[in-house]
């Protein structure tokens, strides 16, 4: 099957091309993928890349911001061992990193695909240039983008489904109280039903408390896709829950599993949703610890 490589460089037919250095496109993604690379697979840091079609190769070059007049496309033939991975996975991993969410399921899928994907990248240490070819037309690139979106959407669901599966279980978190002691707590999530907006209800208990004692409650509501708003948090003045650092231990843990951003309500919200003085005190404490930041324009705190 012919493969195609887009570049700004000029190659001669028969020329052997190898990697010229670290991949500059999403440089923080490569090390993560290489760290999970199965034995014998090529390392991205030492690889050159090719696409299955001229349209995909051209679109990739345009996506990197390369001026169209400078793009050249060549048919190539790898002369080293190769790996084929879904193109959309790389972009999806970058989005997870921006959200500070571990992209474990995406990395696993890249090296051992189990789903049907439309567009693939082939990587290897070197390839032989076969012949130059014409770049794709703008219309062809546009059509490629429409098809590629389906792969992007599929990639975005991988860790979401994994997160929901994980959240079906009871989890243990370590929390440091105002007295400096570290204690273990467990939290039990209730997955959202079919109601819109979706709502996650989470209860937290001390590992040593009785079933009759009060629980710490957290409610997260998804008013906007991918963003969970803290709509209720309460320790019920229970001595075994108050000033125990539960929000500091709980919120980052939940975000890591759900793969969604978490933020506060505004101080003056709509439909009865607003940030209380007690909640503001909690968020200011998170901010002082470097766990949250305040968005002045929107009047919300965001988990950092």
TrEMBL record:
UniProt-listed SUPFAM superfamilies: ADP-ribosylation
Superkingdom is Bacteria
The name on file for this protein is DUF2971 domain-containing protein
Species of origin reads Ramlibacter agri
């Amino acid at each position: 099957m012919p493969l195609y490589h887009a570049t700004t460089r000029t190659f001669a037919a028969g020329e052997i091309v190898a990697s010229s250095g670290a991949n500059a496109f999403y440089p923080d993604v490569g090390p993560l993928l290489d760290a999970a690379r199965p034995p014998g697979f090529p390392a991205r840091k030492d690889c050159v890349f090719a696409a299955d079609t001229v349209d995909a190769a051209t679109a990739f070059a345009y996506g990197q911001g390369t001026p169209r007049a400078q793009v050249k496309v060549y048919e190539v033939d790898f002369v080293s061992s190769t790996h084929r991975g879904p193109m959309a996975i790389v972009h999806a991993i970058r989005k997870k990193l921006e959200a500070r969410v571990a992209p474990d399921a995406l990395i696993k899928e890249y090296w051992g695909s189990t789903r049907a994907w439309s567009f693939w990248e082939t990587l290897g240490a070197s390839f032989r240039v076969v012949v130059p070819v014409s770049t794709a037309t703008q219309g062809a690139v546009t059509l490629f983008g429409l098809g590629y979106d389906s792969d992007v959407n599929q990639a975005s669901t991988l860790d979401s489904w994994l997160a929901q599966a994980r959240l079906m279980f009871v989890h243990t978190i370590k929390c440091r109280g105002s007295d400096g002691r570290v204690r273990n707590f467990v939290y039990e999530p209730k997955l959202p039903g079919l109601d819109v907006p979706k709502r996650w209800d989470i209860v937290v208990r001390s590992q040593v408390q009785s079933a009759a004692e009060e629980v710490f409650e957290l409610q997260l509501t998804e008013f906007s896709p991918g963003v969970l708003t803290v709509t209720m948090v309460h320790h019920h003045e229970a001595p075994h829950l108050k000033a125990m650092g539960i929000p500091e231990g709980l919120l980052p843990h939940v975000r890591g599993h759900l793969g969604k951003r978490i933020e506060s309500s505004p101080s003056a919200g709509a439909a009865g949703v607003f940030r209380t003085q007690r909640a503001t005190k909690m968020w200011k404490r998170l901010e002082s610890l470097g766990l949250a930041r305040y968005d002045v324009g929107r009047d919300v705190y965001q988990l950092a």
